[in-house]
């Protein structure tokens, strides 16, 4: 199974998110992949109501690491679960850039799994780190840190999204990757995750690719055996482009 995840970031308000969901629900109802829509928190309930029993799933872009407590302005995994959220993006580079640490990412992964949802754990190196030949070391460390302390109760399904920071379209000077840049890193992420959790099966781990995926390059990435799907930012805001990405499977 492949996943195509739409990360709408902070680009769509409530009304625009509902409109786009209605269009996608009509056009993507029979998609071969599992589609996941990740709106802003304020649109989650309404997007979920539009999706209703459709095969498209509801996701969130972030979550609090704690389940309950005096955390003004935060959103508990339990609250997301109550609204029908099934997937939660954790550790996106845009959050890491604002101070989210590996330890927080780890706590969030554990909380998301405990609340019965699937984390989409973002990992990836910066341009300078790739240039310095540190890609594998940086990404492996992110993977290991994200999975620290996970045990048998916590290993239903783990989705990683390998997103080299230098390839994300919103980054100044970004440059799209090509499959040969990323496939070896996907292999390494899978190997590292398998080694990090005793007894986990390869079938429980999926590794998506993210970074400037669009209607033109999607097929090249998605046809790779090592790439289990895509996390799409900019191109997921356009119903036609997003449909073409899904259809390139
Ligand atoms: P992009 O964003 O597809 O616009 O590069 C991907 C992401 O940041 O998740």
Query: Helix and strand string, N-terminal first?
Result: EHEHEHEHHEHHEHEHEH
| Number of helices, where a helix is a run of at least 4 consecutive DSSP H or I residues | 10
Strand fraction: 15-25%
Say which molecules are bound, naming each kind only once. Answer: 2-phosphoglycolic acid
- Averaged pLDDT: 96
Described by the principal axes of the CA atoms, the overall outline is globular
Classify the helix fraction into a percent range.
Answer: 25-40%
Q: For the terminal residues, how far apart are their CA atoms? A: 11 Å
Radius of gyration: 17 Å
Uncertain segments are none
The count of DSSP E runs of length 2 or more, i.e. the number of strands, is 8
Biggest sheet architecture: 8 strands, parallel, barrel
**Alpha-beta content class:** alpha/beta
Largest sheet, spatial ordering of strands: 1-2-3-4-5-6-7-8
Task: Provide the descriptors you would attach to this structure in a database record.
single chain; 249 residues; alpha/beta; binds 2-phosphoglycolic acid; eight-stranded parallel beta barrel; 8 strands
């Amino acid at each position: 199974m492949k996943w195509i995840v739409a990360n709408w970031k902070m680009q769509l308000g409530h009304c625009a998110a509902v409109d786009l969901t209605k269009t996608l629900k009509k056009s993507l109802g029979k998609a071969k992949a599992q589609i996941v829509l990740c709106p802003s928190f304020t649109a989650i309930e309404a997007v979920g109501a539009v999706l209703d029993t459709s095969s498209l799933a509801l996701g969130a872009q972030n979550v609090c690491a704690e389940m309950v407590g005096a955390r003004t302005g935060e959103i508990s995994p339990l609250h997301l679960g109550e609204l029908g959220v099934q997937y939660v993006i954790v550790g996106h580079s845009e959050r890491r850039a604002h101070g989210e640490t590996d330890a927080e990412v780890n706590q969030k992964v554990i909380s998301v799994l405990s609340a019965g949802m699937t984390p989409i754990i973002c990992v990836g190196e910066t341009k300078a780190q790739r240039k310095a030949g540190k890609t594998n070391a940086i990404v492996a460390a992110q993977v290991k840190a994200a999975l620290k302390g996970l045990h048998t109760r916590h290993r239903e399904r783990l989705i990683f999204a390998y997103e080299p920071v230098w390839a994300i379209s919103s980054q100044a000077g970004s440059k799209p990757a090509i499959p040969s840049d990323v496939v070896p890193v996907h292999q390494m992420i899978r190997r590292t995750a398998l080694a990090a959790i005793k007894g986990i099966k390869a079938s429980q781990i999926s590794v998506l690719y993210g970074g400037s995926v669009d209607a033109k390059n999607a097929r090249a990435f998605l046809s790779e055996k090592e790439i289990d799907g895509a996390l799409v930012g900019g191109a997921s805001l356009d119903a036609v482009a997003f449909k073409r990405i899904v259809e390139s499977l």
